[in-house]
Amino acid sequence: AGKSTLLKAISGVLAPAEGEVKVNGSFDSLIQLGAGFDIELNAIENIYLYGSLHGRSRSEIQARIPQILEFAELTEFAHTPIKYYSSGMYARLGFSVAIDRDPDILLIDEVLAVGDERFQAKCKKIFQSYIDQKKTIIMVSHSMTTLAPIAKEILLLSKGEVAFLGDPQEAIKVYRGEKYQTALKAAS
């Protein structure tokens, strides 16, 4: 509990109940599938909308459209209103638009759960590029196997409280131990 709320507080969608959140650098977020998109518009129109909301000029956006569509694997669906997209297509477009801005910090909430293995592999390459550039990725996931290979640190939350912060392999042990204990309690 609290994982998505944490991302929303970092992104400014929610105000923290106490304290403050400071963000150093530009960020983009994939907190809710399709957030910021207009489902009546097609991919190209949504790329323009997203880009203009983030301060890009029309010519900058125009120049980036082919790369965004290609990465999202949506070139042949560029003129289809996104209300007809599958959740995977939606996720690919959202991710592709967000990373195209090349933010310092990328906030991701389980959005990759809907992507196929090939697209997830492309995303992992992007994540590695971020790591190599000393950029920050904050990702919410219930899949330790997704996070452990790419994470420098893992934060485990339990009932909105920090249960662990540190090495990914240690986090897996803590996570599996907690899940095991919870399952035992539920079974008895």
CATH homologous superfamily name of the largest domain? P-loop containing nucleotide triphosphate hydrolases
Quote the distance from N terminus to C terminus.
23 Å
CATH domain class of the largest domain: Alpha Beta
| Residue windows where pLDDT falls under 50 for at least 5 positions | none
Number of domains: 2
Largest sheet: 3 strands, parallel
Named CATH architecture of the largest domain: 3-Layer(aba) Sandwich
Radius of gyration: 18 Å
Strand content: 5-15%
Count, helices:
7
Query: Count the strands?
Result: 5
Categorize the overall geometry.
Answer: globular
Describe this structure as you would to a colleague.
This protein is 47% helix and 13% strand. With 188 residues, the chain is an alpha/beta fold. It has two domains: 3-140, P-loop containing nucleotide triphosphate hydrolases (Rossmann fold, 3-Layer(aba) Sandwich); 142-188, no CATH class. The strands form two sheets. A three-stranded parallel beta sheet has the order 1-2-3, sandwiched between helices. The chain has a two-stranded antiparallel ribbon with strand order 4-5. Helix 2 (43-53) crosses helix 3 and helix 3 (58-72) packs across helix 4 (87-100). The longest helix is centred in the last third of the chain and has 20 residues, at 168-187. The protein is globular.
